[in-house]
Amino acid sequence: MFHAVAKHLSFTRAAEELYLTQPAVTFQIRQLEEHFDTRLFDRHHNRISLTEAGVVVFDYAERILELYRETEKAISEMTGVTRGVVKVGASTTIGEYLLPRILSDYHERFNDVQVQMTIDNTRTVIRKLEDATIDVGMVEGPVKNKNIHREPCTEDELLVICPVDHPLLEFDEIPVQKLKEYPFVSREEGSGTRAVITEHLGKAGLNYDHLDIVLELGSTEAVKGAVEGGIGVGMVSSASLRKEIKLGSLIPRRIAGVSITRTIHFVHQKQKFRSKAVEAFYQFAKERCAGQMIDDFPL
């Protein structure tokens, strides 16, 4: 518990990670401070920082956790059984349309491993990796942190989606400047999808800020629902459209002269120790993804 508070420098975020109430976390930290007969945190209104004693305790806590992970790996290698917990973070498109298929196959082979998956936008997945809240991530957006290792996984194409009978459907491929003439349903700031679309439209001569953005939504499903409801057009992964194409409720189009294909990446901390369970998941997912577009995965 101390390690979580020290890592986040936040009682609230530590409580969220540990699935406890904030008062319970605060109480345990006070008990620890009483045990050592010294303050481990300085409280400054809405923020906290480690005291000199707190820095020492945090260093030992890091070493204890690392020894625990190494012990778990050593015992696992002795027994020949891969077990443990793998914490995976995925950005929205991957978490909703790619990872469930991989996890199903992984569980069949490694049924002693518990996988805990969280779905966030790319920015939040990277932050959780930095905080060591997750072991490995899969994202579609850009990563700027030099301490995060990226490895290509697969490719994903983004398409314009229109409601039935929308004027843009007169084009087999939509002229890029036509997009700014109609209401546009966008993903939120921090979304990998939005970052990739912004980059490609900019290269084609259309500034993302010149779109008539009427809604910013936090998931692919929300964007599809808004477009189906006639609020505007949007752009989503081709992998997310199988049901809607089959039902005829949304019509996809490419942009003329613009191929918006992005690379899905595995991401992890460069220096972080990986348990046997985490390493097994990482290698299994890489093999599963090798040479396939995200839309090639069977239902």
Automatic annotation (TrEMBL):
Annotated GO MF terms: DNA-binding transcription factor activity; transcription cis-regulatory region binding
Record-annotated HTH lysR-type domain positions: 1-51
Alphabetic keyword roster: DNA-binding, Transcription, Transcription regulation
Pfam families for the chain: HTH_1 (PF00126), LysR_substrate (PF03466)
CDD domains referenced in this protein's UniProt entry, alphabetically: PBP2_CysL_like
Classification via PROSITE patterns: HTH_LYSR
Family per similarity comment: Belongs to the LysR transcriptional regulatory family.
Name of protein: Putative LysR family transcriptional regulator
Taxonomic lineage from the root: Bacteria, Pseudomonadati, Pseudomonadota, Magnetococcia, Magnetococcales
